[in-house]
Amino acid sequence: MNIIDKLERNERLNYEEAIGLYDLDLFVLGKYANKIREEKHGRKSYFNINRHINPTNICKDVCQFCAYSASRKNPKPYTLKHEEILDVVKNSSLNGIKEVHIVSAHNPQTGLEWYLEIFKKIKTAYPQIHVKALTAAEIHFLSEEYNKSYEEIIDLMIEYGVDSMQGGGAEIFDEKVRKKICGGKVT
Ligand code: SF4
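Above: the input record for the complex with iron/sulfur cluster. Below: its predicted structure, written as tokens.
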């Protein structure tokens, strides 16, 4: 039985079949994801209450669309202290957040430990909060900057308390356009 048949019949996929979902057309995948969602939850939608934290805006890259990095349109560079970040998490936790979403620029001045230690501090103080941190572009930056493989960086993130990573940083997939608007950033 192929994957579509199983999805039609609402049957659980095995590991290999689940990997096969990567090869489905996105709209087909979306159709079945929505079918299962509606079967489970009807017309209800659920939202995650999270807090975005941007620890630094100092960036070694210069993307043309970026209004966040300190090097271009925004002249005020900053790097938050860990205590400042923990204060933000503390205040947000009092407002019932379930997740922190940590994303920032490619700052070559902080050191890898600075990134990792803040994950650990948040997770230790707030084990119930889901820590979502770093885009694939940031992981690439850290990998190059500190001479570690992607796997090593991700293993460290997990070890220091990160629960998931983000989908940001992709922006434009067309290589020609991407080179023009964010040359220097990972392909
Ligand atoms: S890498 Fe990110 S923070 Fe840096 S310039 Fe590009 S979009 Fe802005």
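Notes for the reader.
DSSP finds eight helices and three strands in the chain.
The chain has a mean pLDDT of 92.
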